[in-house]
Amino acid sequence: MRKDVLVYRKVLGLAIVALAVISSAGCDFPRDPRGTLEAVRSGTMRVGIVDNQPWTRMEDGRASGVEVKLLEDFARELGAETSFVPGTTPDLLEAARQGEIDVMVGGYTSTSPGVSEGKEAGVTGPYLSTRTLVGVPPGTPAFEDPSGREIAVGRIGTTSALLKEEGALPVPVDGLSNADMPVAAYGWQLKAWGFEPTPIELPSEDHVMAVPLGENGWLVELERFLRENRAEAKELLRKESA
Amino acid sequence: MASAVVILALVLGSSQAMKTAWIEDLLGLIPPIAFLVAARFNTRGPTARFPYGFHRIVSVGHLCSALALFVMGAYLLVESVLKLITAEYPTINSIELFGRTVWLGWLMLPALAYSAVPAFFLGRAKIPLAEELHNKVLYADAKMNKANWLTAGAAMVGIVGIGFGLWWADAAAAAIISLDITKDGVSNLRRAVVDLMDQAPTTVDGNDPDPLGDKLASMLRGLDWVEEVDLRLREEGQVYFGEALVVPSDETDIPDKVEDALERARDLDWRIHDLALTPVRELPEPDERGAKEPMG
C-alpha cells in the first residue's frame, strides 16, 4: 500500500510537471495533426461555402454574407488570404475530410444534419444564437396560437421546419417584407418592415462553422476569434438581413 | 463513483478514451452493486425453498462482476482498434472560461484524475479485504477499480497526445490498457464459471488450490478412530461445503465421534461451513479426483 502511494505521488508529480510545461508553451497547444493553423497563418484560408443567405452567398464568383465577412476578418487577423470553394454540404464535408478546405460555412446550426453530429467534420461551439419571431401586418389582429395558420417564410429551410413543428403552415413567398400575411423573421426585420410582433417565438438557432476533424489547434483558434467577435457577427447579420 | 459518472458526462467530448471512460464508469458500478446484493443475502439462513442457504449468491455476483469486467475490456479494445483502423481524428472543442478560450482537453485532465484517484485507493484497499473474507466478488470489484484508474490514466495520456497533434495517441493508449482489462476479465470469468461448476476451492486470486482442503483431510486422518478418509469440498461463495467419507478403525460410539470430528472441522477454519461426514466400510475406487490442479 505504501509503495503504491509513492508510485501514485510520482505519477501525479509527473502530470503536474507536464501540465506546467504545456501551459507555459501557451498558444501552441493544442496542435493540429495536419498543421492547418500553421498553413493558414503563412498562406491561404480555404473556405468551403454553401449558399445560404444571409449567412453565405455566392454571386458571380464573389462570396459575401455574414459568415464570409467574419472569416475574411479572421484571415486578416492571421495575415492570410482567403479563397472560396463553392459546393454542396456532402461535397464539402468530403473535401474537409481530405484536408482540401480549412473551414466550411453555410449558415449551419447546431442541429444541421450531416454537420452538427461532428462525425464528418469538427464543429465549433455556437458563435451566435438567433431567434425567429412571427409578426403580423399592421392592422391585422395578432394571435398566440400558430397551429393551422399560414405563415410566410423567405424559403423552405430551417425556419419552415421549426414552424411546422409548432403546427403552422409555412408558405414560401418572394417579397417577405411586403407580404400580406403573418411572416416569420428576426425581431429587427419585423420592426424595420412595420410588422407587429406576436408572442410566438420559434426555438433559438445556434450558429456554427465546421472544420476538418481533429484539427484542434485550428478549431480552438477559430472558436476564440468567433467568441471575441460576437457583437460584430450580430451587427453583420442585421446589415445583411435588412 | 456516481459523481464521477456525472462529471465525466458533463465534460464529455468526442475524445475516444473519454467516452469509453464514461461507459466504463457505468459498467464499473456493476461489481459494487453485485457485492452489496451478495453481502445482503449471503448470510441469510437456509429456508425450505433454499435448503443450502444463500451462500452461492456470492459466486453469482462474481460471475456478474467478471462479465462486466470482460465486457468493458473487450468493448474498449474493439472500439479503440476500430478508431485506429479508420483513422478517426478526435476533435475536442474549447469553452470560454473567465473570458478566456480554454481547450476542453485541459479540463478533461483534472476530471479524469478525479475519477481515477478514488478508484486507485479503493482498489488497493479491497484486495487484502477480499483475501481475508474469501470474497471473490470484492476481488473482481477491486480489479474493476484498477481497470477504471488505468483507463482514466490512458485517457489522460491520450488527451495530452492529442494536444501534441498526435491523433492516434488516444486510441493507442486505450487499446494498450484494454488488453490488461480484458485479461483480468477473462481470468475472473473463468474462475467464476469453474467455481459454479464446483471446482475444488482455490485462493481468492484463483491461482492456487486452497491448502485448507489438505489441512482438513489430514486433521480427519489424524483422529485416533479414523482409518481412511476421502474428502471433497466445493466453494459456495465465501464458504465451503463438502462431504467426507471415513473408514472407522473403531466402530463403537460412532455418532459421538462423528459429532466431535465435525466440531473440530468447524473450529479449524470459519470457511468450513457445511460438512457431511459419512462412516463407510470401505472407500470407493479412487477416480480422477486425485488431480487437484485448479483450472482458473
Outline:
The complex is a heterodimer of chains A (242) and B (296). Chain A is built from 8 helices and 14 strands.
Based on DSSP secondary structure assignment, what is the total number of beta strands of chain B?
5
Gap from first CA to last CA of chain A: 70 Å
Question: What is the overall silhouette of chain B?
Answer: elongated
Q: Architecture of the largest domain in chain B, CATH level 2?
A: Up-down Bundle
- Beta content of chain A comes to 15-25%
Kindly report the oligomeric state of this protein.
heterodimer
Averaged pLDDT of chain A: 87
The CATH superfamily of the largest domain in chain A is known as Periplasmic binding protein-like II
| Topology-level CATH name of the largest domain in chain B | Alpha-lytic protease prodomain-like
CATH class of the largest domain in chain A: Alpha Beta
Q: What is the typical, i.e. mean, pLDDT of chain B? A: 86
